Amino acid sequence: MNKETMTDTIVSAKQKLGLTWEKMAVDLNMSPVWLASACLGMNSAPQEKATAIASYLGLDDSVAAALAAFPTKIWDQAVPTDPLIYRLYEVVGVYGDTLKEVIQEKFGDGIMSAIDFSMEVDKIEDPKGDRVLLTLNGKFLPYKSW
Amino acid sequence: MNKETMTDTIVSAKQKLGLTWEKMAVDLNMSPVWLASACLGMNSAPQEKATAIASYLGLDDSVAAALAAFPTKIWDQAVPTDPLIYRLYEVVGVYGDTLKEVIQEKFGDGIMSAIDFSMEVDKIEDPKGDRVLLTLNGKFLPYKSW
Amino acid sequence: MNKETMTDTIVSAKQKLGLTWEKMAVDLNMSPVWLASACLGMNSAPQEKATAIASYLGLDDSVAAALAAFPTKIWDQAVPTDPLIYRLYEVVGVYGDTLKEVIQEKFGDGIMSAIDFSMEVDKIEDPKGDRVLLTLNGKFLPYKSW
Amino acid sequence: MNKETMTDTIVSAKQKLGLTWEKMAVDLNMSPVWLASACLGMNSAPQEKATAIASYLGLDDSVAAALAAFPTKIWDQAVPTDPLIYRLYEVVGVYGDTLKEVIQEKFGDGIMSAIDFSMEVDKIEDPKGDRVLLTLNGKFLPYKSW
Amino acid sequence: MNKETMTDTIVSAKQKLGLTWEKMAVDLNMSPVWLASACLGMNSAPQEKATAIASYLGLDDSVAAALAAFPTKIWDQAVPTDPLIYRLYEVVGVYGDTLKEVIQEKFGDGIMSAIDFSMEVDKIEDPKGDRVLLTLNGKFLPYKSW
Amino acid sequence: MNKETMTDTIVSAKQKLGLTWEKMAVDLNMSPVWLASACLGMNSAPQEKATAIASYLGLDDSVAAALAAFPTKIWDQAVPTDPLIYRLYEVVGVYGDTLKEVIQEKFGDGIMSAIDFSMEVDKIEDPKGDRVLLTLNGKFLPYKSW
Amino acid sequence: MNKETMTDTIVSAKQKLGLTWEKMAVDLNMSPVWLASACLGMNSAPQEKATAIASYLGLDDSVAAALAAFPTKIWDQAVPTDPLIYRLYEVVGVYGDTLKEVIQEKFGDGIMSAIDFSMEVDKIEDPKGDRVLLTLNGKFLPYKSW
Amino acid sequence: MNKETMTDTIVSAKQKLGLTWEKMAVDLNMSPVWLASACLGMNSAPQEKATAIASYLGLDDSVAAALAAFPTKIWDQAVPTDPLIYRLYEVVGVYGDTLKEVIQEKFGDGIMSAIDFSMEVDKIEDPKGDRVLLTLNGKFLPYKSW
Amino acid sequence: MNKETMTDTIVSAKQKLGLTWEKMAVDLNMSPVWLASACLGMNSAPQEKATAIASYLGLDDSVAAALAAFPTKIWDQAVPTDPLIYRLYEVVGVYGDTLKEVIQEKFGDGIMSAIDFSMEVDKIEDPKGDRVLLTLNGKFLPYKSW
Amino acid sequence: MNKETMTDTIVSAKQKLGLTWEKMAVDLNMSPVWLASACLGMNSAPQEKATAIASYLGLDDSVAAALAAFPTKIWDQAVPTDPLIYRLYEVVGVYGDTLKEVIQEKFGDGIMSAIDFSMEVDKIEDPKGDRVLLTLNGKFLPYKSW
Questions:
Q1: How many H helices and E strands in chain F?
Q2: Neighbours of B65 (CB within 10 A)
Q3: Which parts of chain C register pLDDT below 50?
Q4: Which of A112, E44, I22, I96 has a 20 to 30 A CA-CA distance from B138?
Q5: Sheet with B131-142: strands ordered across
Q6: Per residue in H4-48, pLDDT tens?
Q7: Which of A113, A118, A120, A131 is catalytic?
Q8: Could you confirm whether C90 is annotated as catalytic?
Q9: Which residues of C touch E74 (CB under 8 A)?
Q10: Cα-based distances in Å from D10 to D3, D20, D69
Q11: How far apart are the CA of J83 and the nearest CA of chain G, in angstroms?
C-alpha cells in the first residue's frame, strides 16, 4: 500500500468514525500536528505508533506498514495558492531575513533543524476574534569548520 | 531616505554602539523580531516608535521618517538557498497541508492572518543541544458568504 | 463527493433546468458571483445555503456536503491565457502600484482583505457598447506593531 | 525626460507641497486612480491634462511632455509579493473562472476591455472596520466571426 | 460534447469526406482561418454558422452546440517548439517594439484589438519559391483617461 | 558605436527634426517597418542604406557603421506585458495551430520563413473605429528528406 | 494512427526483425539519421519513402500514412537531463556565440537553415578511444531588407 | 584582466588590424572555431598559444594571461532568441532523441564528450544557395559499472 | 518490459525475499550503489550482470533484458524537495565554486567525469551520532585545444 | 568589508604571493576545501582561524572580521552551466534516489546533514588518466516523532 492509498483509507475511516485529529491525538497520546502529518504521508511513524494508529481506526497491518514506510517528501516549489497555506509562505518571505538576524545573534552561525523538529497549533480565544498560535521547536545546529 | 539606506544607516550605528537587537528591544520596550523587521525595512513603524528608535541610536529625523514610511514588501518567490531560511520554507512545505487540516478543523473555513500577526524567537537551553522556539500568533479570519 | 464531481453535477443540472447563475441567485437570495464561485468549488457554502442550493437543483445530500466542504483553492500562478481572464490580470498588473498608492493614502499601512470580501458584476447598457461593472468590497486590515 | 525621472520629480514635488492624490485629483478635476497611474508612468495623459498637472505642481514643460508620452507598460509576470498587491492577484486567481461564467452569461462571448476602462477607489466607513470599495468599469467587446 | 471531442469528430469527418479547410470555407461562405479556428475549438461560432458547419459535414446537433459554446482559450505561454509556429513568435519577438513604434505613430496611444479581429492566409506563387501572405486586421482601441 | 547608442542617437535626431518613421521611409524609399526595425537595432542595413539613413538625419559614419553591423536579436521569452505587444502574442497563441493547419494544407510540410520576410502596417479608416492592417510576407520553406 | 503509435509499431517490428537503423538505411537507400527521425515522428516522409519503409518492415498502409503525416515537433524547452543529449546542448551553449561570429564572418548576416538541412553520424576508430563525428549541413539564408 | 575585458581588447585590436578569425587562424596555425572561442572567453588557451595570439595582435602579457586563465563557462539556459543561435537549439531539440538512438546503436551505452571535443565550420558553394557545414568531433565515453 | 515495470518487479521481489541492497550487492559481488542505480533504471547493466541479478531474484529474462537496456536518464531540474536529496543539492550549491577552485588547481582546466565514475556509501559509527561517508570517484578529463 | 571585497582581497594576495589553496591549507593546518570555501565567502571562520588566515596573507583585521562574519549563502537554483559544476549536479540528479535508498536502508529514516559536514578532494594518479576523489562526510540526523 502506497502513501496516497494509505491517506485515503485513513481519512475515510476517520470520517466514518466522526473523529477529529485532536480527538485521535488525545486518545493515542500523540501531537495532533505530528499525527496528521504522518497520516497525510509526510512523516514515517515508528512501528509501535504505526500499529497503534491503524488499530485505533480499525484498519489492518498494511496501513500500519504504510505509516511506517519512509516517505519521499514532495511539495510544490511554486508558492501554493491556497490562502491559508500562502499566508504561511508570506510570513516566511517577509520575516526570513529578520529571523536569520535574530536567531544567529542569539545562537551563532548555524540553523534551526527541520528534522529534529516539532510543531503545535493552539487556539487563543479573543472577543475581538480568536487567534491561531503556531509553535515551532527545532534543534539549533552550528556549522563546523575543518 | 529610502528603506535600503535606512537599513544601512541603522545597522552601521548598531554595530558602532555594540548593540544587539535583543538589547535594543529591551531598552525600547519592543519585540526583537518586530524591531529587526522594521529596521530591515519590511514593516513600517508608527511615528512614535520610529522617533524612539532613531533617537536611541543617535540618528536624525530622516531615519525616523524612513522607518515610518509604508514599505513595498519584496521577497524572492524562488525558494531561498540560505540554509537557515530554506529550513523555514521546508517546514512550511512539509507541514502546509497538515496545518490546513489542523487549523481549519479547530477554527472553521478561513485563514491565519499574516497582517494582524506577531512572532517571537526564544532559546531553550538543552544539554543535548539548544533549541530554537518560534512562536507565530495571527488572528483567525473566517471566509464570508454573500 | 469531491469538488470536481460536485461542479460537474451542478453545472449539468443547471443546464438541464435551463437556469442561469443570475436566476438561481435571485431565487435563492444569494449573490450570483458568490453562488457561481461556491458551485465551481472555490468557496465553501455554510450548511444552510449548501442544502438550499442542492435542494433547488433537485440534487441530493452528497452535493450539499461537497458544497459545505472547505476547499483547497488552487489556481494557475502562470498568468492565464483566456482573453477575458487575462484582461483582469492586466488590470491588476497595470494598476497594482497605483492602487497601493491610493488605498494606503486613504487608509494607512495595511491591505484590502481577500477573505472578508465580496464582489458583484453589473451591466451598464450604453448605445456605444455595453459596459461591465465589477465591484470589489474588502475589509481594510491595518498592520500591527508589537 | 523619461517616465522614471518624471515620476521621481512629481512625487518629490507632491511631498514638498504636502499634497495627496485625492486633493490633486479634486483640484484638477480628474480621478485619483487615473491621476496616480499617469504620474506613476503607466498611462499617457492627453496634452491638456499633462500641462495642467505639471503647472499645478509648479513643474516645467519637460514634465508635461513626459506625462503625454506613450508608455511601455511593464509589470512583473511573477505574482508580486507585496501583501496589498498580492491580495488583488488572489482575488483574480480565486474568482477568474467565476467572473468568466457570470460575465459571459450576461453579455455573450467576449471580454471586458482593459483599454476602454476606468477604475475608482472608495472608503466605506464601518464600526467593525472600514472597507475598501474598488469599482472597475470596462467596455464589453464581443468576438467577431468572419 | 466538449471542444476536444468536437474537434476530433470534425477532423475525422473532414478526412473521410476528403475535404480541405479551403473547400469547406468556400462552400460555407466563411473564411478558412476563422472556420479552422472554430473547428479547433479556439472560437465560438454563432448559432447559425454552427448549424451550417455541422450539417455540411453530416454531423448532429451536439456538434453544432459544441461549436456554439464559448471556449476557454488556453495556449502554452512557453514559446512553442514546432518550427512553423515558432517562426510566428520570432516575428512578434523581433518586430514587437517596431510595431508599437509604427502603429502608435499612426494611430495614437492604444492597441490593435485581438477580439474585434480577423486574419487571412494567401499564397503568392513565385518561381524563386512561393510565399506565404498573412493579413491581420484588428480594430484600433485608444486608451481613455478619466 | 553599439546598437543601443545608435538607437538613442537616431531617435534623438528624429525628434529634433520633427520626423516620423513614415516620412523618413517615404523620403528614403524604404518601408517604415523595416526602417524602424533597423533603427531600433533589430536588423542590419546594407551599407548603402545605412549611409543614406545616417546622411538623411545629419549623423556621421559611426552611425552608418552601427546600422550596418549584424545584430544579436534578443527579445524577452516571457510574454511581454505591454498591451499592444501582448495582443500580438495573443493572436499567435490563439491562432498558432490554426495557421499551421491552413498553411500546411496550402503549401505542404514546411514553414513560413522569418528571415526571407517582410511586413507592413496600414490604416483602414472606418467610421465605427479605424482598423490596423498588418501584412506579413515570408518565403515558404519545405522540409527536405535525405 | 498517430505518430506515437506509429513509432511504437515501427520500433517493435524493428526489434523483432533484429534490424538496426543503419541496416535499414542501407537497404532502403536513406540516411540513418533521417530515417530514425522520421520513424520517431519528428519528420514527415514523402509518400514514396513512407510506403517503402512500411513495406520493408512488413507493416500496413496506416503506418505509411502516419509516416507521411506532417508532425507537430514538440521538444522540451527545459534543457534535457539525459547525459548524451545534454552534452549536445552544452556544445550549443558553449559555442553558440562563437558559431555566430565565424558563420556570419564567412557568409554575411543570416542563418543556417534548420529546415533545408541534413545531418550524419559517423564513427572514427581510434586506439585511444573511438570518436563520434556529427556533420550538420544547412542552407545559408541571408536576411532581406525592404 | 578578466575575460570580458580581454574579449573587448582582442575584438578591438582585430577590428583595427582589419583581421578575420579565419585569417588569424591560418596565420597562427589554429582552428578558427577554437581561436574565436578562446578569444570570446569560453575556453582557456595553453600558455604558448595564449602568448602567440597576444603577440600576433600586438597586445601585452596581461591579455595572454587572461587567455590562459580557466574560464567559468556561463550561458543562458533559457533558449536564446537570436535566430542563428536558436536554429542550432532547434536542431538539437528536433534531433536529440534521434542522435541518442543512432549513436548508442553504433557505440553502445555512453556519450559523445563535449570536453575532449573539436568543431569546424565550412562553406559549401552552391548555385541554389551556399550551405553551412558544421563538423563536431567528440570522443565516445562508455558508462562503467562497478 | 520498460524500466518502470522492471523497477517495480525487482523491488517487489526484493521485499518478498527480505533482501537489502547491501546483501544483494555482497552476494552478487557488485557495489550497492551501482546495483541500486541499475535496478532503479538509471544505469544499464552489462549483459552478464543483468542475467546474474535477475537470476538471483528468481526473475525471468525480460527483467534481464530491461536491466541491459540503455536508459534515458530523466531527473527533475527543479531542485527536489525531499530533505535527504535536497541536502545533496545544497552541498553542491554551497561548495560548487569551491570544488572548481580546488580541483582545477590540482588537475588543470577540465572536469571530473560523471560517466567514467563510481560512488560508495559508508557508515562511520560515532557515539555523538553516526556519520554518512560518500565517496565519489571520477576520471579527470582535460579540455583540448585544436 | 563585505564578503565580495574580502574574496577579491584574499584572491589577489594569494596570487601575488604565488600560493595555492593546498599550500595555504598545509601551512595553516586546515582543510583546503574548507579554507577555500571560507575565503570564497560561503562559510564563516571561527575568530582564531580568521585571524590566522588574514595574518598569513599579510592582510589586516577587517579581512579577519569579514571571514568571521556569518554569510548568507546564495547560489543559483537554476542548474549551473559550467561543465565542472554541472557534472556534480548530474551526479546528484542521476544518483539522488539511489542514495536515498542506500542511506536510509543503512541508517533509518533521516538525512545526511549539510551543516555538521566536511568534504575533501584527492587526486588518484592513474596511467589511464588521473582520477578525482571527493569524500563527503555528514552527520546522520534521524527524524523525530512527537
A1: 6, 2
A2: 15
A3: none
A4: A112
A5: A110-124, A131-142, B131-142, B110-124
A6: 999 999 999 999 999 999 999 999 999 999 999 999 999 999 999
A7: A113
A8: yes
A9: 80-82
A10: 10, 12, 15
A11: 8
Cβ-based interface (< 8 Å): residues of J facing H: 78-83
Residue D117 and residue E144: Cα distance in Å, rounded? 7
CATH architecture of F3-68: Orthogonal Bundle (1.10)
Contact B85 A104 (CB under 8 A): no
Chain C: residues touching A (Cβ < 8 Å)? 72-75, 77, 114-115
Which among I4, I42, I74, I97 is the top mutation candidate for probing chain J, defined by the most J β-carbons within 10 Å of its own β-carbon? I97
ipTM over 0.90: yes
Nearest residue of chain I to residue J42 (CA atoms): I94
Distance from CA of C107 to the nearest CA of D (A): 8
Q: Under DSSP, is residue H90 helix (H, G, I), strand (E, B) or coil?
A: helix
Low-confidence ranges of chain D (pLDDT < 70): none
Extract the runs of DSSP E, i.e. beta strands, from H61-130: 110-124
Catalytic site includes residue A87 = yes
Backbone angles phi, psi at F81, to 5 degrees: -95, -20
Sheet containing strand D131-142, edge to edge, reads C110-124, C131-142, D131-142, D110-124
CB I133 within 8 A of CB I124: yes
Contacts of C77 in chain A (CB under 8 A): 78-79, 81
Could you list the beta-strand ranges (E) of chain F: 110-124, 131-142
Contact E38 D146 (CB under 8 A): no
DSSP chain E: --HHHHHHHHHHHHHHTT--HHHHHHHHTS-HHHHHHHHTTSSPPPHHHHHHHHHHTT--HHHHHHHHSPP-----SSPP-SHHHHHHHHHHHHHHHHHHHHHHHHH-SEEEEEEEEEEEEEEE--TT--EEEEEEEEEEEE----
Each residue's pLDDT tens digit in chain I (146 positions)? 999 999 999 999 999 999 999 999 999 999 999 999 999 999 999 999 999 999 999 999 999 999 999 999 999 878 899 999 999 999 999 999 999 999 999 999 999 999 999 999 999 999 999 999 999 999 999 999 99
Catalytic residue among D48, D62, D87, D131: D87
Judge: B83–I93 Cβ closer than 8 Å, yes or no: no
Asked if residue E78 has pLDDT above 90, the reply is no
Could you give the CA distance from residue G51 to residue G55 in angstroms, rounded to a whole number?
6
Domain G83-142: CATH superfamily, name plus number: Cyanate lyase, C-terminal domain (3.30.1160.10)
Is I79–A77 a contact, with Cβ atoms under 8 angstroms apart?
Answer: yes
E131 is catalytic: no
**Of C22, C87, C120, C131, catalytic:** C87
HEC-encoded secondary structure of chain I = CCHHHHHHHHHHHHHHCCCCHHHHHHHHCCCHHHHHHHHCCCCCCCHHHHHHHHHHCCCCHHHHHHHHCCCCCCCCCCCCCCHHHHHHHHHHHHHHHHHHHHHHHHHCCEEEEEEEEEEEEEEECCCCCCEEEEEEEEEEEECCCC
Q: Interface partners of J (3+ CB pairs, < 8 Å)?
A: A, B, G, H, I
C-beta atoms surrounding B55 within 10 Å: 14
Is there a contact between G73 and G42 (Cβ–Cβ < 8 Å)?
yes
**Boundaries of every domain in chain B:** 3-68, 83-142
Would the CB atoms of G37 and H98 count as touching at under 8 Å? yes
Is C116 in contact with C93 (CB distance < 8 Å)? Answer: no
Enter the pTM of the model: 0.93
Catalytic residue among G87, G101, G120, G131: G87
The whole-angstrom separation of Cα D96 and Cα C75 is 9
**Spatial contact of J113 and B129, defined as CB atoms under 8 Å apart:** no
Q: Which DSSP symbol is given to D44? A: P
Question: Of the listed E87, E101, E118, E120, which one is catalytic?
Answer: E87
Amino acid at the residue B116: D
